[in-house]
Amino acid sequence: MIRFLSGVLLLLCFSTGTHAQNLYSITGTVKDKKGETLPGAGIYLSGYTIATVANNDGQFNLSKLKPGSYEVVVQMIGFLPYSKSVIIGDKSVDITIVLAENTIQLNEVVIRSDPDRDKNLQIFKDFFIGKTPNSAQCKILNPNVLFIKYDKETKVLSVTTNEFLVVENKALGYQLKYMLTLFEYNYNTRIISFSGLPVFEDLKGSAKKKKEWLERRENAYHGSPQHFFQSLYRNSSAEDGFVIYKRVHVKNPNRPSDSLLAAMRTRLLRKAPGSMMRAGPVEVDSLTILKQLYELPKEYLVLDTNAVNPDTLVKHFYPNRRTVNFKDELYVMYTREQESNGYSSTGHYVMRPLFIPNYQISIVRQLSGSFSFYANGGMHDNRSVLYEGFWAYEKIGDMVPIDYIPRKR
Question: The pTM is what?
Answer without folding.
Answer: 0.81
